[in-house]
Each structure stands twice: as structure tokens, then as C-alpha cells.
Amino acid sequence: MRHCSSVPPIIIFFFNDSAATEIAWETTDLSDEEFRHHSILVALAGPVAEMIHTGDPFHPALVAEWSQDWRLAWQAAAAKFPDHRRRLNHLEQTSLRLYRRLSQDDHWSAIATLVDHLLAHETLDEDEIAEVLGNWLDLWD
Fold it and tell me: pLDDT below 70 — which residues of the chain?
């Protein structure tokens, strides 16, 4: 995964055949390692949130609907973990940490609120997300 500090990268995550989400970061404040770390977390967050919502703790690599998310996480981890076993272990451990964190009531409440607004409005820009999530954003730091 490459990024240029003069142009924010756009990462596209396909959730189904008809919908996609685009996430763009300013990279001037992110090292390559931080960018990779954030990319992995974002790629795995959707599958993990779905696991929590459904109560089915599937492996993110084994669910067809999550294959794009897993592929993006796999690619983002490649530079740091060229060995496939170490990369797999890193992504599995990251998924578990995300699962534990997103399962906490305060985080899950923020996710549910965001989902409700997305269902109602289809798209939200950065300011709208900040307004919807308010103080919950501070919990992620």
C-alpha cells in the first residue's frame, strides 16, 4: 500500500455489490508504519463489528463478504510481515484486540449510533461524523 504525503490516499472497502465506503486520510502526520496500522484496523473493523452484531465469531479470512477487507489488511501488513505465518498471526491478534475493544459497551454504542445515522442518511461527511459521535471519538485515542 503506497501513499503520497501531498495527496491523501483513498481506500475503498466494498461491503456488498452495490455499496462502497471511501476513507481518506491526510498522511502528512502519519509515518508509513502508522498508516499501515490504521489501514489494517479500518479493514478489519467492519468484519469484527459484524461478528459482534451477529454473535458469530468467524475468522475474517473465511467469510466471502469480508474477502476484500481481509485482502486489504493482508496487503497492508505485507511490508512489516513478509512471512505469511507471522502476517496471519498479526492479523488474527489484531482482529481479537479489535473484537475486545469494539465489544465494550461505550464503543459499541458509538458504532450503533453511527450505523443508525448512516442508514438514515446513506452518507456522512467528516463534520457530520464528528457531530454524531461527539465525545465518543475521544475514546479511540
Answer: 1-28, 137-141
